Amino acid sequence: xxxxxxxRERGEFYCEMFWVQHxxxxxxxxxxxxxxxxxxxxxxxxKPENKKLAKWSxxxxxGFEDELASYEGxxxxxxxxxxxxxxxxxxxxxxxxTMLRHLNNPELSSDPKNHTIPLLDSFPIPNDDxxxxxxxxxxxxxxxxxxxxxxxxxxxxxxxxxxxxxxEQNIAHGDACTTNFLMDCTEVYPQGYHWAKPNTIDGLQTxxxxxxxxxxxxxxxxxxxDFEGALSYxxxxxxxxxxxxxxxxxxxxxxHSRGAPFNxxxxxxxxxxxTFLGLCESDDxxxxxxxxxxxxxxxxxxxxxxxxxxxxxxSLDSLESFIASKDVEWLNGLLVKPESLELPDKRVERVGPWxxxxxxxPFC
Length: 364
Hints:
Elements: H1 6-9, H2 14-21, H3 23-28, E1 31-32, H4 51-60, E2 75-80, E3 86-92, H5 94-103, H6 106-109, E4 121-124, E5 131-136, E6 139-140, H7 149-168, E7 171-172, E8 181-183, E9 222-224, E10 231-232, H8 264-281, H9 295-301, H10 312-324, H11 328-331, H12 344-347, H13 355-358
Antiparallel strand pairs: 1-2, 2-3, 3-5, 4-5, 6-8, 7-10, 8-9
């Protein structure tokens, strides 16, 4: 067997080598990374017992699970050895960890309006000024696609509620956008999904079945994450000022203020409004239909003049009043083309197109 170049085999991503270097330490702490990150990892493709399978995988374009790289930077999935639970481990900045720990204190975490992602565990990183934080295994809030207005409205409501709660504590999030809104997907994906290939269970060919949010037994809960840009203003939010904007949404006047001081709380409002407005106005094939009635609120939240925007609490009140005025038929209105819907029971048994073919190949 030829000698391995770990950087080449792992795609030359420094962030992946970071996890390789900390594989043993995390194991000692009770968390197991995928085989790809073992220091002595040998790709499944190169193992003698997989020689024939590797040959056919090149022909039909089907790889091995341990070939799936992770491009999420310093965030990775793991298994908690104590109970086999899937979790996410993040190399967090001290500012992110400090705010996450504060919002998870018993007094604040007991409030149902607090939608901060739970902090399961934390511990220092050797010879590093960052901290490992362990978080629940969650999905981006907009995946799978919303299929009715009720689902969309509830996600919007909970995110507004969570940010309004932060604002009540005089804390601005600083980067309130799609990648920092998460969903507890336990019931939506009853068989789970693969971190590096979310449309599958095993990272290979077995598709991950999902249930529509409005059909699960327990209401889906949404969470906020990534607090490294969060700012606290103990003296009150009305006179809060900052010159830093680290948000991913770059269309706000504050982002283009070129260093001029601004209040970060209206910027949070803008970013949430822009996020949900973007879901309505996307030009790609996955854009949502029938959300025109929500747009006046989104547009008010993205007003050019920050003083013309509603507060987060006012936005939440407006949404709740708006939803209360609608009937069940309106709430159940589809947001996708009917022909694009697949019922959950049709998804459960779906497998890759090569599965039957592979059964005919003599691998050993």
